[in-house]
């Protein structure tokens, strides 16, 4: 419950194995939905199809058996729209509110002409519930083209669709919101910045996203601050992420030596194993830190797969504004540093460290000295 007139009727999914078929969610994920009461009543967004019954039951309880007048559809991705047909079957008189793009997608998912009762809104349109006016703010590509936010001036609540959403069900926000944002919305920083600017002049006391907790007070201010950084591709932390793969432990030893040398110099450093740690967390951490070192081997005359895929994932999310360095290992014909550099050269505003490390099979006095030189440079 946000207040007496805005009730949470969403559900918690603890059974899902991979969100969007690719993101691990060990603590589950919530599909949030809200009931907003004026003289008339609107529901804001639906939930995943596996939870139609629970969601409709939550609405029933919140409305004491009354029927809602409207269902606002802010986002058509199935984690939020999967229960629309069950809703329309139960409440055929309810008017479904969306924009032109929303209804094109709705037709694709549920059949041409679905639903019969609809209200098509434009950016900036309002919906008067009686004693409460909702305003629609289009937020294209945050994270699909039809996305819109809904602003309730009465309670200064912004229903923010996927924006400000987080994986998990716990109290912490930063890590799971970052992993969600960078993984799912990170490519669209320009569009996120545009909509943050668009709502910048609104009085907002509560942000009600479609995943995770609602935000208010200091948490809200902190979340907005982080979102501005993420959307602007600015690092949160001046420090170094070392992301390594290691076949027999020798590359790991070099990565660990660099980590120890950085910590000894007072640098905020973190080390991750790209083959074993959660890939989405490794990607999110690269966006958190200002500097990145990728340590890996040449494999099949290219970059070891987990490292190559990692860099692909950074590039596709518009990784930029960072310093990048390499540790490469190869028993014969090492080429991965050159190939990694070529991948990062497709990103904007990447500074390559002057020092790099080349290991032939195992650390030697020469490659140890290169690690020390790299640590010195990154600590400056
Ligand atoms: Fe939570 Fe873009 O769906």
Describe the 3D structure.
By secondary structure, this protein is an alpha/beta fold. The chain contains 12 helices and 23 strands. Strands 17, 18, 19, 20, 21, 22 and 23 form a 7-stranded mixed sheet that branches. Strands 1-6-7-8-9-10 form a 6-stranded mixed sheet. α8 packs across α12.
Which helices and strands, and how do they pair?
Layout: E1 6-8, E2 11-13, E3 18-19, E4 23-24, E5 29-31, E6 34-37, E7 41-44, H1 52-62, E8 70-72, H2 78-81, H3 84-90, E9 95-98, H4 100-110, E10 118-120, E11 126-128, E12 133-138, E13 148-152, E14 157-159, H5 174-185, H6 189-198, E15 206-208, E16 215-216, H7 217-231, E17 237-244, H8 250-264, E18 268-273, H9 279-288, E19 289-299, E20 302-303, H10 305-316, E21 322-329, H11 336-344, E22 350-352, E23 357-359, H12 365-379
Parallel strand pairs: 7-8, 8-9, 9-10, 14-15, 17-18, 17-19, 19-21, 21-22, 21-23
Antiparallel strand pairs: 1-6, 2-5, 3-4, 6-7, 11-12, 12-13, 13-14, 15-16, 19-20
Helix pairs in contact: 5-9, 6-7, 8-12
This protein binds MU-OXO-diiron.
MU-OXO-diiron (FEO) is lined by residues 75, 77, 79-80, 143-144, 162, 210-211.
């Amino acid at each position: 419950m946000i207040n007496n007139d805005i009730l949470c009727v969403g559900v918690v999914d603890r059974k899902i194995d991979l969100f969007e078929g690719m993101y691990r969610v060990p603590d589950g994920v919530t599909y949030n939905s809200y009931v907003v009461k004026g003289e008339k009543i609107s529901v804001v967004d639906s939930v995943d199809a596996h939870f139609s019954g629970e969601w409709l039951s939550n609405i029933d309880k919140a409305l004491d058996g009354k029927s809602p007048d409207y269902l606002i559809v802010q986002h058509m991705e199935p984690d939020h729209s999967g229960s629309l047909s069950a809703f329309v079957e139960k409440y055929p008189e309810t008017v479904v509110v969306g924009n032109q793009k929303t209804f094109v997608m709705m037709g694709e998912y549920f059949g041409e002409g679905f639903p019969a009762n609809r209200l098509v809104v434009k950016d900036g349109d309002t919906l008067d519930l009686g004693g409460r006016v909702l305003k629609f703010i289009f937020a294209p590509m945050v994270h699909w083209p039809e996305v819109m936010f809904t602003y309730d001036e009465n309670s200064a609540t912004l229903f923010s669709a996927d924006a400000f959403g987080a994986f998990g069900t716990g109290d912490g926000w930063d890590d799971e919101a970052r992993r969600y944002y960078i993984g799912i919305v990170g490519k669209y920083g320009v569009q996120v910045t545009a909509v943050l600017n668009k709502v910048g002049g609104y009085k907002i006391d509560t942000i009600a996203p479609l995943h995770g907790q609602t935000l208010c007070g200091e948490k809200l201010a902190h979340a907005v601050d982080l979102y501005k950084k993420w959307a602007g591709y600015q690092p949160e932390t001046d420090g170094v992420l070392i992301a390594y793969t290691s076949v027999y432990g020798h590359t790991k030893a070099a990565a660990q030596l660099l980590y120890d040398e950085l910590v000894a110099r007072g640098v905020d450093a973190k080390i991750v194993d790209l083959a074993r740690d959660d890939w989405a967390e490794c990607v999110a951490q690269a966006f958190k830190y200002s500097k990145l070192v990728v340590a890996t081997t040449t494999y099949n005359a290219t970059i070891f797969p987990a490292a190559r895929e990692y860099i692909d994932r950074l590039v596709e999310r518009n990784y930029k504004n960072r310093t990048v360095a390499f540790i490469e290992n190869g028993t014969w014909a090492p080429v991965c540093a050159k190939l990694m550099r070529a991948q990062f050269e497709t990103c904007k505003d990447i500074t390559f460290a002057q020092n790099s490390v080349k290991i032939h099979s195992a650390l030697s006095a020469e490659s140890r000295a290169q690690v020390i030189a790299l640590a010195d440079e990154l600590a400056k």
